[in-house]
Specification:
- The chain is an alpha/beta fold.
- The chain has two domains: 263 residues, Glycoside hydrolase/deacetylase (TIM Barrel, Alpha-Beta Barrel); 87 residues, no CATH class.
- Helices cover 55% and strands 10% of the residues.
- The strands form three sheets. Strands 1, 4, 5, 6, 7 and 10 form a six-stranded parallel beta sheet that branches. The protein has a two-stranded parallel sheet with strand order 2-3. The protein has a two-stranded parallel sheet with strand order 8-9.
- α3 links the parallel β2 and β3.
- α4 packs parallel to α6 and α9 packs antiparallel against α10.
- The longest helix is centred in the first third of the chain and has 22 residues.
- The structure holds zinc ion (ZN).
- The site of zinc ion (ZN) has 5 residues, from β5.
Length: 365
């Protein structure tokens, strides 16, 4: 029954979005609905030499992003998150805002994303994880993706990775979760997803980082080289800021903030803020993105600390639009990658799903 309901909802959402998009009704709904900011988020513009080994859902091809910005640029105001929020808060009339955001601080954001933004006369917000820029250290998930993308990892690279992890780890929770994932025997893609989930949510972070460092080194990984090719430098960040791009905070180590106590969360959030202020100067940064961004990845205390250290806007990764009354420490965002259909982005941005919700019908997510 739950499955049937889900299928029905997905199909209704598709049909509704296609009708809005292809008939031009989106423009009618857009005029009818209150002014809003729709925030899109991605990670990388596809550029093999920097991010070739990252999974497809973290990348968007330049031509696809160009198409998205071209479409929205004609009908909406393209801005950064802080810029767009100020426009909404000012209450003046005008077009609704579409704000593009990119998370983590990858090098392609300067080399590939910036030229695209400049062609469209658009700003955007880029959220930086500060440790890669400060120390040349990348978090565990990139070492994981790098190892399983190596040609030497064979045709079942994730299985090979997981079996190696099982021999090195002393963490019962991780061992049990990974054994369960292997037993499922549901193919490489499913295992890749499940192994990542176990390492993210079930594993002890200290044991995990130690084990992955060992596997990474054993596969010939060079952390400094990986970091230099994958992440931007502070010079890149300054060049982006000089070009009018907003830079925001995303913690020091890309951790799950809801798992930390108040002081731990403060160190991650304020540490990142301090690095940004030191390197970029000026009034510092206003906008923060919770790593992973789901409601279970942060909590009320996280939001309070984020505010206390000086951020006045924060974004999650739940779909929806934002109005002047939306909780400014929980602004919503829509993912955009090569598989995102334009009609779904448009149906959301024009206020199409907000309109249905007024009639008690929730077709979003
Ligand atoms: Zn992130």
């Amino acid at each position: 029954m739950a499955n049937l309901k889900h299928t029905l909802k997905t199909n209704l959402r598709e049909v509704y979005a296609r009708v809005l998009f292809h008939t031009g009704l989106h423009a009618v709904v857009d005029r009818l609905m209150p002014r809003r900011m729709t925030i899109l988020f991605g990670h990388c513009v596809d550029q093999a030499e920097c991010n070739g080994f990252l999974p497809a859902d973290m990348k968007i091809r330049a031509d696809n992003l160009d198409r998205v910005l071209g479409w929205f640029g004609k009908r909406y105001s393209l801005d950064s998150i802080a810029g767009g929020h100020d426009k909404l808060a000012a209450g003046s009339d005008g077009k609704s805002v579409v704000a593009l955001s990119f998370d983590d601080g990858y090098r392609d954001n300067r080399t590939a994303l910036l030229p695209i933004l400049q062609r469209h006369g658009a700003s955007a917000t880029i959220f930086l994880e500060s440790r890669p820029l400060d120390e040349g250290v990348v978090n565990w998930s990139h070492k994981y993706h790098w190892v399983i993308a190596q040609p030497a990892a064979g045709d079942a690279p994730t299985e090979m990775f997981v079996r190696r992890y099982l021999t090195l780890s002393e963490d019962e929770a991780a061992l049990e979760g990974l054994r369960r994932a292997l037993e499922e025997d549901a193919g490489e893609d499913r295992l890749r997803y499940q192994a990542k989930r176990v390492m993210k949510y079930e594993a002890d972070p200290v044991d995990r980082d130690r084990v992955i460092d060992q596997i990474f080194a054993g596969a010939g990984g060079d952390q400094a080289a990986l970091c230099a090719s994958l992440y931007m430098s502070w010079d890149d960040a300054r060049a982006l800021a000089a070009a009018g791009i907003e830079l925001g905070g995303h913690t020091v180590n890309h951790v799950i903030l809801s798992r930390l106590d108040r002081e731990g969360a403060r160190a991650e959030i304020d540490g990142c803020r301090a690095s940004l202020a030191r390197e970029l100067g000026g009034g510092g940064t206003r906008t923060f993105a919770y790593p992973f961004g789901r409601r279970w990845d942060y909590n009320d205390e996280t939001s309070a600390v984020t505010r206390e250290v000086g951020f006045d806007l924060a974004v999650n990764t739940h779909a929806g639009t934002n109005g002047p009354g939306t909780d400014r420490m929980q602004l919503r965002r829509l993912p955009v990658d090569d598989t995102t259909p334009m009609h779904l982005l448009v149906a959301e941005a024009c206020g199409g799903f907000d309109l249905l919700r007024r009639f008690g019908v929730d077709l979003s997510e």
